[in-house]
Amino acid sequence: MNQLQKIPRIEMVDALRGFAVMAILLVHSVEHFIFSVYPTDSPAWLAALDKGVFDAVFALFSGKAYAIFALLFGFTFYVQYANQQLRGKDFGGRFLWRMVLLALFATLNAAFFPGGDVLMLYAVMGISLFIVRKWSDRAVLVAAIVCLLQPVEWFHYVASLVSPAYQLPNLGVDALYAQVGEVTQSGRLWDFIRCNATTGQVASFLWAVGAGRATQTVGLFLLGLYIGRRQLFVSNDKNLRLWLNVLLVSAIAFCPLFSLRNLIMGGSAAVQQTAGTVFDMWQKLAFTLVLVASFVLLYQRDGFKARVTNLRFYGRMSLSNYVSQSIIGALIYFPIGLYLAPYLGCTASLLVGILIFLTQVWFARWWFKGHKQGPLESIWHRLTWL
User: Fold this and answer.
1) Residue 234, by phi and psi: left (phi above 0), alpha (psi -120 to 50) or beta?
2) Which of 48, 99, 109, 127 shows the greatest Cβ crowding within 10 Å of its Cβ?
3) CB within 8 A of 125, min separation 6: which ones?
């Protein structure tokens, strides 16, 4: 295989992926990996601080970190597909097999993460990348925009206006999550793993469909593919001007979208679940683009690049870090492990998340001294090319 025929690795993308995985870890740590058990006797000052930490972390990263992850998932598909095109091969069929393998990794992660895992959503929605792999750049961009407009939610909204008796689909997510919560609280290891890997996965996928995240994920996949095709992550004057414009437009759009979202969420349940979901997705998307554009622009500065250099190693091992986070979190917070959830408020949990991050960074730097890929990344690569 000719090693010269290969799309060069962009270290900024590795650092941005590392930033996303770190942000996901901090959100999960603060929310106790979706296990809502917290201290009940904290002093007033600590309770206020915990609330401030929770609100700040969720405002900055909740829904945005996963969006960045999804965007880069589409970009990575472009790199893999383009590399095989340079060798005269179609990566499409191999990519579908790769999604089957990703579903297995998703099951491993979900076994320790109550409520299922987003990687299963990626494995299913990743089929969209296979479908559009030979479409033109314009067609891919149009499809991405259509998905990001949240057409399913708009359909339900219009239908509810036309017929007041219209009922939104009841996916039964609350009942599934309640079942997962009971098993998590029980502390029975095998029941915990079994329920998370089955019921939790179903609950997570149905929640993503009902919350608009499934459609948004496809849109972000396609947008990442488009960014790769147009080489928009390559540092040059034209691209940097583009990202500056993205930053300005997204920052300006975020404020009214956020205000409209809050206003709409004061309406009826049907409006909240339709138009409210749309504006919630849009305000999160706007803030996501603010984060991505800011990171791209700041990375051009040597000082910033030096300060976030560890994120490059962290991002290159994103799958291993993401899965190991869930295992570590389960052992720290849940009854199957140390069960520290009742003793750690949001502030302490944020510090735990930072400690986990620093430990994973240290391991990543050590690992890459003797390996080209992370542990799970290497397994995924080997199985992909069986």
Assistant:
1) beta
2) 109
3) 214, 217, 218, 221
User: Residue 260 is part of which domain span?
Assistant: 11-384
Q: Which amino acid is at 55?
A: D
Q: pLDDT, tens digit, for every residue of 300-329? A: 999 999 999 999 999 999 999 999 999 999
Angle formed at CA 123 by CA 122 and CA 126, multiple of 5 degrees: 70
Task: Return the SS3 of 258.
Answer: helix
Tens digit of pLDDT for each residue in 42-74?
A: 999 999 999 999 999 999 999 999 999 999 999
Q: Record the tokens describing residue 140, joined without a space.
A: 């891919």
What is the pTM assigned to this prediction? 0.95
Counted residue by residue, the chain has a size of: 386
Closest CA to 231 of 51, 33, 13, 61: 13
Coil vs helix vs strand at 188 = coil
State the number of CA atoms in the 13 A half-sphere of 248 facing the CB: 6
Whether the pLDDT of residue 3 is over 60: the answer is no
Cα–Cα distance, 333 to 37 (Å, whole number): 9
Residue 164 pLDDT: 83
Q: For the stretch 360-384, what's the b/e string if a residue is b when 16 or more beta carbons lie within 10 angstroms of its beta carbon? A: bbebbeebeeeeebbebbbbbeeeb
Q: Is residue 371 part of a domain?
A: yes
* Residue 3 in domain: no
Mean pLDDT computed over every residue of the chain: 95
Token pair in block for residue 258 = 């956020």
Look at residue 5 and tell me if it is in a domain. Answer: no
| pLDDT confidence bin for 267, thresholds 50/70/90 | confident
Closest to 364 (Cα-Cα) out of 314, 328, 327: 314
Residue 4 lies in a domain: no
Count how many domains the chain has: 1
- Distance separating alpha carbons of residues 55 and 44, to the nearest angstrom: 17
